[in-house]
Amino acid sequence: MPRGGWTRFAPAPTGYLHLGHVANAIWVWGVAREVGARVVFRIDDHDRVRSRPGYDAALIEDLAWLGFAADRGPTRHSDDPMPYLEALERLRAQDIVYGCDCTRTTMAAWAAANGAPWTGPGCPGDCRGRDLDGPVLRVAQGGGHETWMDGAVGPCAGDVAAAGDVALRDRDGNWTYPFTVVVDDLREGIDLVVRGRDLLHATPAQIRLGRLLGRPAPPAFVHHPLILRPDGRKLSKSSGDTAVRELRDAGRTAADVIALAAAASGWSQTS
Q1: 247 lies in which domain range?
Q2: Phi, psi (5° rounding) for residue 71?
Q3: What is the CATH number of the domain that holds 253?
Q4: Rg for the chain (alpha carbons), in Å?
């Protein structure tokens, strides 16, 4: 992993911080400390449908209560729309952006007819060849694999278009996470990405997209273990999993919460 540089902690304001976020914060600040990196606190508000000002304020309050202090931020996607528009134009100049009208129903119908989900470049509707305006915008990133050495997992490789071409803008007009995270990491100079293993599969497409946007080498990646529910699923804000403020109200201290999340996610000073 690189010495120095920048990493980020980037929760979305679509719910309250829960133990999974605390685990990520422990790993972000812990790895940053070990390699001498600095931390950007980024509030990932690209989803205008589900983001709420109250959750935004709660993220800031809960992170401060836990004692995590960023070197910069909070920054937000909504601070400046221009980087995303400029990135879109850079991709358009390469003639690889196209409109798509495929829906979940389209994807499900294709999977039912073919006995497996869509995989590889393109989309089931062959939208790139139909000269559509949208409503979804996708980028033709090509096929093949990307490889990287993960700081927690080891050697990794994956298909760039495992689930088809990446969407840049959804049908509600929101920039998508795969697009905004790459643009934000570029504009904020992020060279170390520390996040949960639920995003391991998304890394090949993000590495390729970064290259298409002019990033010659990807950031270093550390994909840490997740805190899982008893049924094996990851913790989720939408399903009402234990929130930091609920633990506070129950009398837990910040040290208690951090120790619980650290133990559950496998963090140690030698991780």
Answers
A1: 6-95+174-265
A2: -85, -20
A3: 3.40.50.620
A4: 19
How many Å apart are CA 231 and CA 98, to the nearest integer? 39
Q: Which residues contact 143 (CB under 8 A, 6 or more apart)?
A: 120, 121, 159, 160, 161
Question: Can you tell me whether residue 38 is helix, strand or coil?
Answer: strand
- Amino acid of residue 4: G
Asked if 29 and 60 count as a contact pair (C-beta separation under 8 A), the reply is: no
Decide: 222 and 193 in contact? Cβ < 8 Å.
yes
Domain count, the chain: 1
- Quickly list DSSP for 215-246: -SSPPEEEEEPPPB-TTSPBP-TTTTPPBHHH
- Residue identified by tokens 């990491």 is 185
Calculate the average pLDDT of the chain: 92
Q: Which pLDDT tens digit goes with each residue over 68-114?
A: 999 999 999 999 999 999 999 999 999 999 999 999 999 999 999 99
Q: What are phi and psi of 197, to 5 degrees?
A: -70, -10
Let me know if 99 is exposed, middle or buried by CB neighbors in 10 A (0-12, 13-18, 19+).
middle
pLDDT tens for 123-149 read 999 999 999 998 999 999 999 999 999
Question: Residue 218 contacts by C-beta under 8 Å, 6 or more apart in sequence?
Answer: 146, 148, 206, 207, 210, 211
- Can you tell me the distance from the alpha carbon of 109 to that of 128, in angstroms, rounded to the nearest whole number? 19
Q: Residue 124, Cβ neighbours under 10 Å: how many? A: 19
89 domain-assigned: yes
d(CA 191, CA 218): 7
* Distance in angstroms (rounded) separating the CA atoms of residues 193 and 171: 28
Inter-residue contact 264 to 23 (CB < 8 Å): yes
Is the whole-model pTM more than 0.85?
A: yes
